[in-house]
Amino acid sequence: MLLSLPDRLVPAKKELVSGLFETIFQNKDSLTDLSLFQVRSSLYFLFSELFQESASQQITGNTGAIRRSLQYIREHFTQAIPVEELIRLSGLSPSSFHRRFRRETGLTPGAYITKLRVDQAKNLLSFTQTPIGEIGACCGYPDHVYFSRVFHHHTGMTPLAYRKMTESP
């Protein structure tokens, strides 16, 4: 998974990322509940920002119509995303949208959203100790049982097995 990340990522929101790192470092040694919460939430937000930035750098070859839809998906992947909204954003007819989306991404809109959610879940499972149900909710699956089923279908393992496999020795 780490090999698929870009060699260098230059975040567009440098001040935001710097502020998140500052918050993490300021609170890293404190054991109060508030400090631990601030570190945890800052890490989630940092991972989310880096994940979105990485995803946006990987889709620069897409046309404007599809790029708008992909940007919307990246910004709202934790919510239900009606395909009709993506079609509206693209300005294309439904058949043109589906054909071009698949040609430019290799996936249907639904499969693209699922891949994005599962990839985000893999990152969170690898780099945090957040409960699996919370990770599912953070990735757009409020029902943890459904999240586990989707995750297993796409990775061949449960979220817990994936976490154990990616843990550092």
Keywords:
mainly alpha; disordered N terminus; 169 residues; single chain; 3 domains; 70% helix; 0% strand; Arc Repressor Mutant, subunit A; 9 helices; globular
Question: What would you say this structure looks like, in words?
Answer:
- The protein folds into 3 domains: 46 residues; 48 residues; 62 residues, Arc Repressor Mutant, subunit A (Orthogonal Bundle).
- 70% of the residues lie in helices and 0% in strands.
Kindly report the oligomeric state of this protein: single chain
Report strand %. under 5%
Instruction: Summarize the amount of helix as a percent range.
Output: over 70%
Sum up the overall morphology in one term.
globular
Regions with pLDDT < 50 over 5+ consecutive residues?
1-6
Query: Helical element count?
Result: 9
Taking the sheet with the most strands, its summary is:
none
The count of domains is 3
Q: What is the CATH H-level superfamily of the largest domain? A: Homeodomain-like
Task: Indicate the structural class.
Answer: mainly alpha
How many β-strand runs?
A: 0
Overall average residue pLDDT: 81
CATH fold descriptor of the largest domain: Arc Repressor Mutant, subunit A
CATH architecture of the largest domain, please? Orthogonal Bundle
Q: What is the chain-wise order of helices and strands?
A: HHHHHHHHH
CATH class of the largest domain: Mainly Alpha
Cα-based radius of gyration, to the nearest Å: 17 Å
What is the distance, rounded to the nearest whole angstrom, between the alpha carbons of the first and last residues?
A: 17 Å
